[in-house]
Design a protein that fits this description.
This protein is α/β, with parallel strands linked by helices and 290 residues long. The protein has helices at residues 16-27, 47-54, 68-82, 101-111, 170-176, 188-198, 223-240, 244-261, 265-279; strands at residues 6-12, 35-40, 59-62, 87-91, 95-97, 115-124, 131-134, 136-139, 146-148, 160-161, 165-169, 202-213. It is 40% helix and 22% strand. Strands 1, 2, 3, 4, 5, 6, 7, 11 and 12 form a nine-stranded mixed sheet that branches. A three-stranded antiparallel sheet has the order 9-8-10.
Length: 290
């Protein structure tokens, strides 16, 4: 396990400017990763051409269609494993890493061989000294509530490592698998964390590793975002809740009350529209992502 055999994977979708920054930050790390892999999720904004021009030393893979966050990352992970990577660091396209981040991650991974996923400190890009997330967060399989930690916690309290920045050792990937591509966006990182812990792996945070995250402002508030959040939450509950019918009802009540308190009537209408399409859908069974 070394930087030379580590691959950094960045998924791009119609955001080549941010992706260039992410790739350049990965290349500037000391020690530097062996490969930087960019997966373009069938962008329509000339991303592929611009990335080939501006990031000539990165491996550029084209998905051919928008596979979502998990599906895009899986393409990069498969390439990395096929080319001998000892571990894969997934870095959001709208994030940049400190030059010492990879070294700090690998130190934690070596010191904790049971760590199946290693996260980092994540700061706001526009408030560089304000912590956005300490590695990951928690998720309640009864109500669907989830939140990221805003400060250090005991590793046992981590339910998942956020997909914004996560390192996956090869041995963990080969045993517990990659992302479930049934999650197009949202909750794929929570699902991964629950699966890895069920396989006996620990979750860890490299406290000395820093990443600055810009955030996906473009998608916020859209009807498609609301639909995917509902689909992903229900899929997560179906796969991990002891009693799906109860958790689906509780999560719906909780979300409705939360929207009502904030007077987000549009979100309540969207939820009422999206629920019939997903709540009674056939039982989702996962195909192992190996």
């Amino acid at each position: 396990m070394s930087a030379e055999t580590t691959a950094v994977v960045v998924v791009n979708w119609n955001g080549w400017q941010d992706t260039v920054d992410a790739v350049r930050s990965a290349r500037a790390m000391r020690p530097a990763p062996g490969h930087v892999v960019v997966v373009d999720n069938a962008s329509t904004d000339s991303s592929e051409a611009r990335l080939r021009e501006l990031c000539p030393d990165a491996v550029l893979l084209q998905s051919g269609m928008n596979l979502g966050f998990g599906g895009g990352n899986n393409i990069g992970i498969r390439w990395a494993l096929a080319h001998g990577a000892s571990g894969v660091w997934l870095l959001n396209s709208d994030a940049v890493a400190h030059e010492g981040a990879l070294g700090a991650i690998l130190e934690v991974a070596k010191a904790r061989p049971r760590a199946g996923i290693v996260g980092t400190r994540i700061y706001y890009a526009d408030r560089r000294d304000v912590l956005q997330c300490w590695g990951g967060g928690w998720a309640d399989v009864w109500t669907g509530r989830s939140s990221e930690f805003s400060g250090p916690v005991e590793p046992s309290e981590l339910h998942y490592i956020t997909g914004c920045s996560m390192y996956l050792p090869r041995a963990a990937l080969e045993k517990a698998g990659m992302f479930d591509e049934g999650f197009f966006m949202y909750f794929e990182d929570a699902d991964l964390g629950f699966r890895y812990r069920a396989e006996g792996f620990e979750l860890a945070v490299a406290d000395a590793a820093k990443v600055w995250h810009k955030g996906g402002a473009a998608a916020r508030g859209s009807s498609s975002q609301s639909a995917w959040r509902t689909q992903s939450l229900l899929r997560f509950l179906r796969l991990h809740s002891p009693v799906y019918a109860v958790s689906a009802l509780l999560s719906t009540l909780y979300r409705t009350l939360a929207f009502a308190r904030r007077r987000q009537w549009v979100e309540i209408r969207r939820l009422a529209h999206d629920l019939p399409a997903w709540a009674l859908a056939p039982d989702w069974r996962r195909e192992p992502q190996r």
